[in-house]
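Summary of Year 1 activities. Much of the first year was spent building the evaluation harness for sequence design. The harness presents a backbone, in tokenized form, and records the residue chosen at every position. We chose the following record to illustrate the format because it has been used consistently in internal testing since the harness was completed.
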């Protein structure tokens, strides 16, 4: 038989086989009338071992394959917490260069935390979820809730500050908003990812008490209150085991104690072992052999730890198939919540409401740190010529930073916003300093002559009535950027020297720090005003100008402490083994005393304390009352007082309530945030404010028990404008 006839016969045989097979098999349909749990079991029973294996690892950089034979769709996911990231090609980190993948860029989560406004957090999450849904994403890889432990951590701008209570309260509505759109939020990075330096190798040594009091509460709230559908593991280790497949963190705490019923997935490249991934709670493996970056094997998905190696171990009897079945049940549950939910909305993209949310978050998040001689607000008629100096007045800060990079359709710069308010004839701009283009792995040169930039900036300042200096950090390598930490608290690119030269020719200077981290301020005593701004997203310029000109009264509060010196920070106080470690191990010697807990308890004043933020108006606090003086553990303390806006402008004050135990049996912080409320008041308006704190929230984690305990004792309740600005106090007693 010649070669042509053989090919004809083979085609005919294949056609007959397909037809016979099609007639012999009953078509598969999943009964949509059954409860979800029954449908999950039905689908699971119909899947082959190979189909199940395929579902628990990636098929591309940002998708998993589903089960086409049963009509179970692919799962598509996207970074990030501040906006839907641009598209990438199938098997590389190269941008796909689509023309329709731009987004609304929302302010970084450090800014959202600074609003102290949970209602705004819901609107933020809902708007983000709408855009993710419209872009056909099933998982949005955010929010991040790791604790701000050191001002050097490169990824702090993606997180919600140093206080576990603040992070917990703000993350829950964000998650609910996202998931209202049938898109899974994915809280990250679980857990103890509090530095980028050596994140791939570092083993975090931390007490059970600090773990439970400081580093886990926001994750717990995300699961037990927010009902989050996905959790992402971190790169680092805990108790010698990588966190993405860690028996203690995932099986015992996340899925056991907290009852998490969603999907546990890796960060890109954070899986390291098939046995541990199978046994210790990992459900979905993404990005292995890329380390989240640009190197590694191409199209290596079948070689992932939960791919062919997992399949072989099941077939060889080394691992039970029940481990795989549990993972698939969770993945199917995620599908029924997202891409198999026929009732989920269609989403929207780049809507006017999204822009409005981005702007309001930016406006409410800007923090007024210093305002000598009422430098701010700068009314349009106040000065004839304003010098705007600094690269951050024009730099596109939605770019860079690692996986949170965005392709914003619009990004209004602060300079543009100021020109719209004050007019081009009254604004003179000079760059002053320059950085290079954003890069994930290295610092690129700027291409500008630094001396020429300084000379031009000084000349501009000398001829102006007032100077607005836009400095801080950006999202370049070793600044606010994933992959490594900052080298110091100092401002980069010679900004401190530039400010010194500007102040010699013009004393009327206000500084706007754009960053996601604290910076040192050696010039603080010589400038008239300082604002802490953030990566504000699409509406950065409009929001910044509105606050500077007084159209919007600043109401942001610091979500972290700004130390005077790096060594005043608790993580750095104890030397290199406390931060950054030795490349293998880092020991959290600051224990539970993180942020303001450290500054208050050790009596080391911060330059600007947690919760600090000034206003253009004045707020007066009335006498504090509680329902009673003696409480049982099952009770709730209700705190009441009157808040009055006695200034000349409408505004908002974030009332903060701190609790401190008088005579604890174990060391405790002087006080801890246990409640807050943002109160909006017209000028001259008064409101009765009520806040409630369950007595159970007075508990601390006792290593020896182990567990939470509330001791019978007296507790001081401080009603405050910041962690150091205590306005009123009262005392209650808790009985046994």
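For this record, the design step produced the sequence shown next.
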């Amino acid at each position: 038989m010649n070669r042509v006839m053989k090919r004809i016969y083979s085609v005919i045989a294949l056609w007959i086989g397909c037809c016979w097979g099609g007639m012999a098999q009953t078509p598969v349909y999943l009964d949509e009338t059954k409860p979800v749990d029954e449908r999950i079991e039905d689908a699971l029973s119909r899947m082959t071992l190979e189909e199940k294996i395929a579902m628990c690892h990636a098929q591309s950089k940002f998708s998993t394959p589903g089960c086409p034979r049963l009509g179970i769709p692919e799962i598509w996911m996207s970074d990030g917490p501040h906006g839907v990231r641009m598209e990438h090609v199938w098997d590389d980190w190269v941008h796909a260069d689509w023309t329709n993948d731009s987004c609304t860029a929302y302010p970084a989560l450090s800014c959202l935390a600074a609003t102290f406004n949970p209602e705004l957090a819901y609107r933020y999450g809902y708007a983000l979820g709408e855009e993710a849904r419209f872009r056909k994403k099933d998982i949005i890889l955010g929010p991040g809730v790791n604790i701000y432990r050191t001002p050097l951590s490169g990824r702090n701008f993606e997180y919600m500050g140093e206080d576990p209570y603040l992070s917990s309260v703000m993350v829950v509505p964000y998650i609910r908003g996202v998931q209202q759109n049938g898109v899974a939020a994915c809280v990250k990075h679980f857990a103890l990812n509090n530095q980028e330096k050596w994140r791939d190798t570092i083993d975090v040594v931390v007490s059970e008490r600090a773990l439970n009091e400081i580093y886990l509460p926001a994750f717990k709230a995300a699961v037990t209150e927010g009902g989050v559908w996905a959790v992402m593991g971190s790169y680092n280790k805990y108790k010698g085991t990588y966190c993405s497949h860690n028996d203690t963190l995932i099986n015992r705490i996340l899925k056991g104690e907290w009852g998490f019923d969603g999907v546990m997935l890796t960060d890109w490249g954070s899986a390291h072992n098939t046995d541990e991934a199978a046994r210790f709670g990992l459900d979905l493996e993404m990005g292995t052999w890329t380390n989240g970056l640009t190197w590694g094997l191409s199209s290596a998905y079948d070689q992932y730890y939960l791919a062919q190696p997992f399949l072989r171990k099941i077939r060889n009897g080394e691992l039970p198939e029940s481990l795989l079945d549990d993972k698939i049940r969770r993945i199917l549950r995620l599908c029924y919540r997202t891409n198999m939910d026929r009732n989920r909305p269609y989403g929207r993209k780049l809507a006017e409401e999204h822009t409005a949310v981005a702007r309001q978050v930016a406006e409410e998040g800007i923090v007024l740190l210093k305002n000598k001689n009422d430098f701010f607000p700068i009314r349009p008629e106040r000065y004839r010529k304003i010098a705007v100096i600094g690269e951050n007045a024009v730099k596109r800060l939605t770019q860079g930073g690692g996986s949170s990079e965005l392709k914003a359709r619009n990004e209004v710069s602060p300079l543009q916003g100021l020109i719209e308010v004050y007019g081009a004839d009254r604004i003179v701009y000079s760059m002053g300093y320059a950085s290079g283009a954003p890069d994930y792995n290295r610092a690129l040169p700027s291409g500008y002559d630094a001396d020429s930039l300084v000379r031009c900036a000084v000349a501009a300042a000398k001829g102006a009535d007032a100077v607005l200096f836009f400095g801080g950090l950006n999202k370049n390598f070793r600044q606010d950027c994933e992959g490594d930490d900052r080298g110091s608290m100092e401002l980069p690119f010679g900004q401190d020297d530039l400010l010194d030269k500007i102040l010699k020719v013009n004393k009327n200077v206000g500084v706007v720090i754009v960053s996601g981290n604290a910076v040192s301020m050696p010039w603080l005593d010589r400038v008239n005003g300082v604002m802490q701004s953030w990566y504000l997203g699409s509406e950065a310029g409009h929001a910044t100008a509105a606050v500077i000109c007084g159209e919007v009264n600043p109401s942001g509060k610091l979500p972290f402490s700004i130390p005077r010196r790096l060594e005043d920070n608790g993580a750095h106080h104890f030397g290199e083994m406390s931060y950054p470690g030795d490349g293998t191990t880092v020991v959290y010697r600051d224990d539970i005393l993180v942020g303001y807990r450290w500054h208050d308890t050790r009596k080391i004043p911060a330059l600007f304390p947690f919760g600090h933020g000034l206003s253009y108006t004045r707020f007066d606090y009335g006498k504090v009352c509680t329902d009673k003086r003696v409480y049982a553990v099952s009770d709730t303390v209700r705190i009441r007082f009157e808040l009055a806006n006695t200034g000349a402008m409408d505004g908002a004050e974030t009332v903060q309530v701190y609790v401190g135990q008088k005579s604890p049996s174990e060391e405790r912080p002087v006080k801890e945030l246990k409640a807050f409320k943002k109160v909006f008041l017209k000028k001259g308006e008064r409101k009765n404010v009520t806040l409630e704190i369950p007595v159970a929230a007075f508990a601390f984690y006792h290593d020896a028990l182990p567990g939470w305990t509330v001791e019978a004792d007296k507790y001081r309740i401080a009603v405050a404008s910041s962690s150091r600005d205590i306005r009123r106090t009262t005392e209650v007693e808790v009985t046994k």
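The longest strand covers residues 651-661. Quantitative recovery figures across the full test set are reported in Table 2.
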